[in-house]
Specification:
Two copies of one chain form a homodimer. The first copy, chain A, is of the alpha/beta class and about 230 residues long. Chain A has two domains: about 80 residues, Arc Repressor Mutant, subunit A; about 110 residues, Rossmann fold, CATH 3.40.50. Chain A has nine helices and ten strands. In chain A, the strands form two sheets. Chain A has an eight-stranded mixed sheet. Chain A has a two-stranded antiparallel sheet with strand order 2-3. In chain A, helix 8 links the parallel strand 8 and strand 9. In chain A, helix 1 packs across helix 2 and helix 1 packs antiparallel against helix 4. The longest helix of chain A is centred in the first third of the chain and has 19 residues.
Chain lengths: ~230, ~230
């Protein structure tokens, strides 16, 4: 789901493939589930099985970052959670700015999944004067003119774009101008960013295409001749 | 972003790795951009470069499904678009049902990216009687009791869950009961589905973790010692 323009996270000029970083997130979620269920340890086999990866894949992914397992024990869940959060950078809080307070923006302000992982939208921005000063899900809405001041005060390094397609590039330019280092773009349009700013584009139709592929090819996609444990699996 | 529970699209029991299907979507988007820019042909090299994959990766991915290139010409964009849409199942329209008409639901009803790829939400469902009969972005809101009738009338095979976490499993059960074959789940919770129903879970924090990883590891992730053209790259 990375946007090809701008420097995509984990792009070929970085050391760690994007797919590996993506799997780290999946391992983290599964470890968090296990801890919630009272489990203290797990194995690459167990972690892989529930996610549909081989144990070798799990070990190879983690080996990019160090040695985390113990002979005869496996992984200590809490310890591996801390390690992965440190790798992903979510051992710290990430205050974020959101541009665009339409339906999507409001939905994202109420999205519980962000805070659970250390991401917090601390300020929202819109160009509609009627929205100024309102507070949505505890987050204040400002005019875009206030972006430089609010960003500096709150040490905001990540931004979310939730404006219509036609306004997305201007929103991105504003975020870049105030020094934001990473942008999550929900607008269904390609935006151009300077080399040093990371961009992840969310294209929700891609998720649906995974579904339509699976439903449309049911049965016919079950051929035994194709690789079953491809490295590409994620 | 597949949910580990239920039968994930492209899971190990299928022939085509999920990552390959994901890349097909990216190739399709890029081809659509090229056509919009007036291009008639392209190459694996060009398609790969703009997306950050090697030309070998592009050829390998497409080879799962057939032979699409012409010697001395490369790929004909229109033809490859048609072929990929057929593979992804988006050469047909997919009428969809959405359960949950809160902020997220409203945002999804207005999301332009779905229709562009052949997905159309034809009916929305909610349990709040105040929402019944309203029309949002041209889509009628019904009570969940009408799900069997509306689903049958509109030949709906895919469903979207946009309810709060606590209501997600019940929403999924309702969709399964009326014969929906694939579910896109936006609720930040794991839901269980019968084996024959495909599930894709959208966890937006995973996208943010890609960003925080890239921003937090800037510089340090640039080591030349790691593989640059790993098969795992996507």
């Amino acid at each position: 789901m990375s946007d090809p323009k701008g420097k995509a996270a984990g792009s070929p000029d970085g050391a760690v493939p994007k797919a590996v970083v993506n799997r780290l997130s999946l391992y983290l979620r599964e470890l968090q589930h296990l801890v919630r269920d009272g489990r203290e340890t797990t194995s690459s086999n167990q972690l892989g099985r529930v996610l549909g990866f081989t144990d070798a894949q799990v070990r190879k992914d983690l080996a990019y970052f160090g040695h985390f397992g113990y002979p005869g024990i496996g992984y200590r869940c809490d310890e591996l959670i801390r390690a992965i959060r440190k790798i992903l950078g979510t051992n710290q809080q990430w205050p974020m700015a959101m541009v665009g307070v339409g339906n999507l923006g409001r939905a994202l302000l109420g999205y519980k999944g962000f805070q659970q992982q250390g991401f917090r939208i601390v300020a929202a921005f819109d160009s509609d004067p009627h929205k100024m000063g309102s507070v949505i899900e505890g987050v204040q809405v400002y005019h875009l003119d206030s972006l430089p001041e609010i960003t500096a005060t709150n040490r905001i390094r990540l931004g979310i774009i939730a404006v219509p397609a036609a306004a997305a590039q201007a929103a991105a330019d504003s975020l870049v101008a105030v020094g934001v280092e990473g942008i999550l773009n929900f607008a269904p349009v390609t935006i151009a960013l300077p080399e040093h700013v990371n961009l992840v584009g969310v294209d929700l139709a891609i998720e649906l295409e995974q579904l339509s592929f699976a439903v449309a090819n049911r049965g016919s996609a079950k051929s035994e001749s194709a690789p079953k444990h491809s490295n590409e699996m994620d």
